[in-house]
Amino acid sequence: MTETRRTVLVIGGGTSGCVLAVLLRGAGITVELVEARADWNATAGSGITLQGNALRVMREAGLWERVREHGHSVDGVTVTDPDGTEVFTRRDLRTGGDDLPAGLGLGRPALQRILIEAVRASGTRVGLGRTVAGQTQDATGVDVSFTDGTTGRYDLVVAADGLNSRTRELIGISDKPAPTGLAVWRTSVPRPADVDRTHLAFGGPACIAGFSPTSDTTMYAYLVEPSRDRAAVDPASYADEVRRLAAGYGGHWEGIRASVTDPAQVNYTWCDRHLVEGAWHRGRVVLVGDAAHACPPTLAQGAAMSLEDAAVLAELLGTHDTWDDDLLTAYRDRRMPRVRMVVDASVRIGQWQLDGARDADVSGLMGRTMTALTELP
Questions:
Q1: Cα dihedral 209, 91, 46, 87 in deg (nearest 10)
Q2: Cα–chain center distance at 256
Q3: What was the pLDDT predicted at 231?
Q4: Residue 3 has what pLDDT?
Q5: pLDDT at 45
Q6: In terms of Cα–Cα distance, which of 173, 137, 180 is closest to 332?
Q7: 3-state secondary structure the chain
Q8: Bridge partners for 146 per DSSP
Q9: Contact, 84 vs 251, CB < 8 A?
Q10: What phi-psi label fits residue 37: left (phi over 0), alpha (psi between -120 and 50 degrees) or beta?
Q11: Which residues, including other chains, have CB under 8 Å from residue 177's CB and lie 6 or more apart?
Q12: Which one, 71, 77, 130, 231, has the greatest CB density within 10 A?
């Protein structure tokens, strides 16, 4: 790797920020990453599904083998009635190519540990417990002040600081996420040996009840329902709420219900729709991942879209000598049609669930979207 004098600041140490840092370092670009949380989110979350097109980016970043080692590959989905009776089982489309599985379940803490190790091994400079306080820029770079009183100058700043991005606000992009009316309960539970794919039930007490393997011994379970006032739901009751909803489902849900006892291990999140309609940059500050777009988990494509952002931006920065408005506009224009398709489809499927539209063409919309995603971003 030939080191260049160009420097990029990545704000945010989540999935897209970490993978972008690794890819940029692979292109010989000097990278600094700052993360507001001192613990780097190393233990937060339950599980995540990485679809094939997300795994393709992981492989490009040199992370596929580690992800495969710590996760569980899945190539199909079983749809059941709420009582657990199987309706059908089908193989999922391999959106990352025939040499990768259709998807992989992984515990979020395990994924974050893999990302942290990769960022550190890449030579990225890391600053934990600090983030950006302010920035000014000119035609050649960005001067950044940090919350710990330090300063720095960079050729480019990338905002990977999530759905409620402070950087997005600082640079004057006014688009904000909006709730879809859906919320999801998530928790990690023991995995029965015969669960080797995703299981989904539509209807019952929740809109969607599902579970998916995340390792040889674990899986994560989730229940999607109409959103409630978060202030009215006591976090101490989270395990009780999951058990109450899960009581309406049969099959493996009986074991899941019995294993959910610790409210601290349950996550409750509203599902938002977010898409920055205009430019994704201002000058030399550019958005990636949830800072630019987000959607409900009805297609399990949120992480994949963020990872594709990182791959496309890293490719453009690594193959062009001039980093200017035209290049950052090209990044947004290349990503926008694909991201819009996923956001719109995810929101539509979620609305169908809220409306109880049982005759809606969910499988058809999923199939058309996933087929389009087999193309390279």
A1: 20
A2: 24
A3: 87
A4: 53
A5: 82
A6: 173
A7: CCCCCCEEEEECCCHHHHHHHHHHHHCCCEEEEEECCCCCCCCCCCEEEEEHHHHHHHHHCCCHHHHHHHCEEECEEEEECCCCCEEEEEECCCCCCCCCCCEEEEEHHHHHHHHHHHHHHHCCEEEECCCEEEEEECCCCEEEEECCCCEEEECEEEECCCCCCHHHHHCCCCCCCEEEEEEEEEEEEECCCCCCCEEEEECCCCCEEEEEECCCCEEEEEEEEECCCHHHCCHHHHHHHHHHHHCCCCCCHHHHHHHCCCHHHEEEEEEEEEECCCCCEECCEEECHHHCEECCCCCCCHHHHHHHHHHHHHHHHHHCCCCCHHHHHHHHHHHHHHHHHHHHHHHHHHHHHHHCCCCCCHHHHHHHHHHHHCCCC
A8: 132
A9: yes
A10: beta
A11: 163, 164, 272, 273, 274, 294
A12: 71
Compute how many other C-beta atoms are within 10 angstroms of the C-beta atom of residue 269. Answer: 14
Note the pLDDT of residue 4.
Answer: 60
Predicted TM-score of the model (pTM): 0.96
Structure tokens at 55: 């795994």
**Would you state the pLDDT for residue 369?**
97
